[in-house]
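User: I need a structural model of Adenylate cyclase N-terminal domain-containing protein from Bracon brevicornis for a docking pre-check later this week. Nothing fancy, just the predicted structure tokens so I can convert them on my end. Input:
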Amino acid sequence: LQDLTCILRMLTTNILLYVAVNLVGMYTKYLTDRGQRQAFLETHRSMETRQRTQNENNRQEKLLLS
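Assistant: Understood. Predicted structure tokens for Adenylate cyclase N-terminal domain-containing protein:
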């Protein structure tokens, strides 16, 4: 009976540990994905702004040359 109790406690502990480690892993992945997404959006916005500025400069240059 004592062996069964010990085995059940070990099994329960292992299951709880497994669940906890998986939750920590999922949270870490969420934070990593969120950080990468924010970096991507920032880079995308920067490239769009650069393109708009370049287009505006080209437009102004054409106006000056005409």
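Before docking, keep this in mind: The mean pLDDT is 97.
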